[in-house]
Amino acid sequence: SYEVTQPLSVSVALGQTARITCGGNNIGAKNVHWYQQRPGQVPVLVIYRDKKRPSEIPERFSGSNSGNTATLSISGAQVGDEADYYCQVWDSNTVLFGGGTKLTVL
Amino acid sequence: QVPLQESGPGLVKPSETLSLTCSVSGGSITSYNYYWAWIRQPPGKGLEWIGSVYHGGDSYYSPSLESRVTIFVDTSKNHVSLKLTSVTAADTAVYYCARTTVSKYYSYMDLWGEGATVTVSS
């Protein structure tokens, strides 16, 4: 079965660009979606279909997907961006989540 | 009014059936061209998809849970129900319902409920 893998943690300096990866075999051929879950809160969709952004999500959030890696980028990282981030794909009529990446803003 | 609201018992005994309801507000559930999903999150762990269902009857389930899960849409009550049988402590989690877009090539959840905490314990 298909699997998606994420790093357990990523750190970024305040104001810099954070990049969170999601790996999978030829994941570039799939649509990747990203969710943000702040501590104690509900997951929120921040990127869908690789690079589309819901209207309420800041432009600082962007996505890309090619080859074996999809990437969520957060420019101008803020303390409020500290959260767990999950990538998600649809494969064989099944929703698959990555294990999640904890983003720390230093 | 919260668009999606989960409800149900917070404590379930081992081997019994977990039953949760997700109330959809803001319009008839049949007027939406969406699927409705259940996702769970064990304490301190990541997200796990349980299944997704359309009001017209189409449904998809996680292979690992399919034998124990039923998700159905009750159009008369405008809600989505989850039943998980033969529960164990491993089913302890926060259970979320979510509005879901499904196509041949993708599925994603763009609106989530607040979640319902369910503990399996005797």
Quick recap:
Chain A is mostly beta strands. Chain A is 0% helix and 46% strand.
Give an overview in words.
The complex is a heterodimer of chains A (106) and B (122). Chain A has 106 residues and is mainly β. Chain A contains no helices and nine strands. In chain A, strands 1, 3, 4, 7, 8 and 9 form a six-stranded mixed sheet that branches. In chain A, strand 3 and strand 4 form a beta hairpin. The termini of chain A are far apart. Chain B is an all-beta fold and 122 residues long. Chain B contains no helices and eleven strands. In chain B, the strands form two sheets. In chain B, strands 2, 4, 5, 6, 9, 10 and 11 form a seven-stranded mixed sheet that branches. In chain B, strands 1-3-8-7 form a four-stranded antiparallel sheet, with no helix packed on it. The model of chain B has no long low-confidence stretch (mean pLDDT 94).
Radius of gyration of chain B: 14 Å
Number of helices in the DSSP assignment of chain B? 0
Mean pLDDT of chain B: 94
Report the count of strand segments of chain A. 9
Task: Report the major sheet of chain B.
Answer: 7 strands, mixed
Mean pLDDT of chain A: 97
Residues in helices of chain B, as a percent range: under 10%
Distance between the termini of chain B: 34 Å
Give the number of helices of chain A: 0
Distance between the termini of chain A: 37 Å
Unreliable residue stretches of chain B? none
* Annotation, overall tally of beta strands of chain B: 11
Please trace the helix and strand order of chain A, writing H or E for each element: EEEEEEEEE
The assembly state of the depicted protein chains is heterodimer
Q: Count interface residues per chain for the largest interface.
A: A-B, 25 and 22 residues
